[in-house]
Amino acid sequence: MNLFRKRGLSDKMNQARVSLFGSGRRLRSERTLIDCLTTLETSIFSYRPPESAYRSAYVFPGWRWHGLQEKPPETVISFNDSNNDFLLAAFWSDRSGTECVLFPLGNGDERLLSLPIIDHWHYRDPSLRSIGVIPGGQIALAPPLVPDQFFDEILKIANFPSTPFNLETLGMEIGKMFLARAHQFIASYDPGSADRFIQSHRYNGGSLQNFCQSILDDLAAWNPDVLPYVQDTPMRVRAIVLELAKAPMWEQLERLSQSPTPLQDRAPIADPDGIHDSPEMWIKTGIAHMQNARYAEALVAYERALVMDPNYIDAWNNKGIVLRNLGRYQEALVVYDHVLTLNPNDVLAWNNKGNVLSNMGRLEEALAHSEQALILAPSNAGCWYCKGCTLADLGRYQEALVAYDHALTLNPNYTDAWSNKGYAFKALGCYQEALITCGRALNLDPNHIDAWNNKGSVLADLECYEEALVAYDRALALNPNDVLAWFNKGNVLYALKQYEKALATYDRVRVLDPNHIDAWNNKGIMLTYLGRYEEALAAYSHVLTLDPNHVNAWNNKGVVLRMLGNLPEAEAAERHARELGG
Predict the structure, then answer these.
(1) In 3-state terms, what secondary structure has residue 557?
(2) pTM
């Protein structure tokens, strides 16, 4: 497979609707194109580990170039940034290096100010620099292409020959998976249209590659807004098929020593228990992976179950949980909406959809979903707990305590409820109650990271800083990538006036979350205390690219500018802070 093969458009794809992008962020690296792609892949994997050994960090999407002055890019890829936003990246190379343009969804240059991937990439390629903006309307998404030799390549990797029988068997299986994915997208809008789409796409002979391509083309024609979310379909399906090494399909295929046998003459696979390859078996496999936090493998299992039974509600619900754990919130919402079309009274879907909405900051909607779940199941401890979490996020801590108490009455060993009840007490200034409640959580589960974080936060408020550090270190021993624990530890070191250590801690936060505004702001404060004013100024300026209305950053920037003797700009910064209410 040629890594840099341009994705041309078939005649049918030329008829499909396309989606134009707005302006793009121009970057320049001194490295070669292949080195840039390798570095970019490493950067993506640093925040999004591969879901499968057969998946890359990015895919080669369908695209069309509309630029009148620039030559078409040599390579175009797509991937999700660390904030889960879709990005299209176009590359041009020359003797002095490589130019890349990043195109996020939407319009307006302001969306180009904060692209987390740039920090991840620059960390591994110091030569990377921004060189401006390219106007919108230059490039469009089109349906992804099913690559030439797609089925042959899968068979080769799995050590099977590309016989007509094998190609037909594999192609039919993949066609079903393409249809299942199309059905998922369409059903979230109109279940009736989804069923009609399936009925109108029945394989009647001919090229299976063209059949699969027609599914993608017609899905894009139905609604071009799905284009960003279907670009990985060929590679996702490829990975699922290759992961299913023990599926009956593989047992049917011909080995090199076998003579061809027509599909209709094949004997059925022996399966005396009826569970060797059933949706129930894949559900159990997915649950086992989830319990070990192997979410990518769990997702493969649930998708396999849904290929076999598209109406299996447990598989849909569990898939939604996995997508939420992977930070893929929009996809999770689509899943839960589909569940509720299958069963409008599904308590788990109402509750879990509320959790996703809460993660997205849509708190009032989340609360409404929790309350709907409780109407359906008033004795469900999990629903009361989720309602408490949402109320706490809304700052309604007294009501949150009532909800947590309901959950604990129903389940006295509900560790998460004890931990979050402690946080609510802290927010209300009831520190002793908070310590007792966090302690109860840790008695039930000494490895509860959130309880250690909450206990540390209470101790910090009580100015018991050394004890707070112990609590945060316990949390970090359990999860070295816990952003909250690192940030809170930095705040305690700041309070102890250990500015160098605090600075290193905030830098750790920035590596884990490049858009953590408070870490950037606090880094500027530490640099100011250390007399490193130019670096502090750069930190505050970065905060203001992330949030132009950050009052503290404007005030802090004014202080540093005064330190540097730049009084006019200092006064301008302070005036801007006052205008914002600071």
Answers:
(1) helix
(2) 0.55
